[in-house]
Amino acid sequence: MKNSYLFITVLMVTMLSCQSHKEKTQESRRLTDSLQTVELQNEAEMKAVLTNYGAKVVSLYLPDREGILGDVVTGYDSLSDYLKGEKYFGAIVGRFANRISEGRFTLVGKTYQLPVNNGKNHLHGGDTGFHSQVWTIEKVDASSVTFRLVSPDGESGYPGNVALKVTYSLTPDNALRIDYEATTDQVTVVNFTHHSFFNLRDGGRTPITEHILTINASRFIPVDEGLIPTGELRAVAGTPFDFTTPYTVGERINLPDKQLINGRGYDHNFVLDRPEGDSLWLAATVFEPETGRLMEVLTTEPGLQFYSGNFFDGTTVGKGKTAYQFRSAFCLEAQHFPDSPNQPGFPSTVLNPGETYRQTTAYRFSIRQ
User: Fold this and answer.
1) How far apart are CA 150 and CA 357, in angstroms?
2) What tens-digit pLDDT sequence spans the chain (369 residues)?
């Protein structure tokens, strides 16, 4: 009799496991069937391929100084690989980009608990954030596409129904321009960003340590071991974080600096020296000497997260079976500051009913001979 009970228990567990696997397979097929791509091109032959899964940039083709087109962002050859691979390649991130300490914040006297997915902290909206959702393609033409997403009240613990539209455009001056617009029906917090991983030389086959970087920021935000801001806005002068004049990414990245140790390299938000107002402003430039490609980052946002690809280890295999190695791509994410809901001294990320959130960021490309 005891063995019969054991057999029945094992059988039930097996059936539940099979059912769970079947449901996961069906969900994966449903997602795959709903994925679409859009190809944009401008008159200068700059080309972008995007998908409605996470409103992601799949490929971005630019000429080098010889006029040869090359893809400068990491990613995958198959859309189905985006469902199981690196979450943030080319994505729009939300509801809140970057980290929130312990996934908790208080707003209008109420404390909200978010899922923790980065140690004990909340990162990039959680595992079911905007990067992992299927967006609606609202409008598309030869050089632009508009994606739309509605995030319901309570999703990942956030208050309010938030409606977000993101428009990607390839402009005549060779920029990938990203315009955001969002509204809410309850007081909430939002912080959106774009998360392409760039390698201006070859899209991620070689290190980015020889890329030459300038960031127009005289302060940066120190972080603790969990990459949560300490609350300080520290001067970059005399530190490895001073990119107010050009430095290669790798020139100081391995110095025994506590902040570099915390981030395993650069994974920090820079406080941009931008003037007041909502106009686009030059936040950073990156030059790749081998190809002559130059990227300028312009934004209306107050901060720029510089991430030097410190967690790539060769296990992520992408386009053309490229195994993305340590520091083989970088991100420059225009955004508000991390953990802002818990940092009263940081610019507010609160969005109220009746207000419209707007942000513009552009990655503009040219050739330096």
Assistant:
1) 14
2) 545 544 444 445 455 555 555 555 555 566 777 899 999 999 988 999 999 999 999 999 999 999 999 999 999 999 999 999 999 999 999 999 999 999 999 999 999 999 999 999 999 999 999 999 999 999 999 999 999 999 999 999 999 999 999 999 999 999 999 999 999 999 999 999 999 999 999 999 999 999 999 999 999 999 999 999 999 999 999 999 999 999 999 999 999 999 999 999 999 999 999 988 779 999 999 999 999 999 999 999 999 999 999 999 999 999 999 999 999 999 999 999 999 999 999 999 999 999 999 999 999 999 998
Residues with a known catalytic role: 195, 333
DSSP assignment of 334-348: EES-TTGGG-TTSPP
Q: Which two tokens stand for residue 153?
A: 């009240």
Unique residue bearing structure tokens 């795959």 = 32
The verdict on pTM exceeding 0.85 is yes
CA contacts within 13 A on the Cβ side of 139: 8
CB atoms within 10 A of CB 344: 8
Q: What are the structural domains of the chain?
A: 35-367 (2.70.98.10)
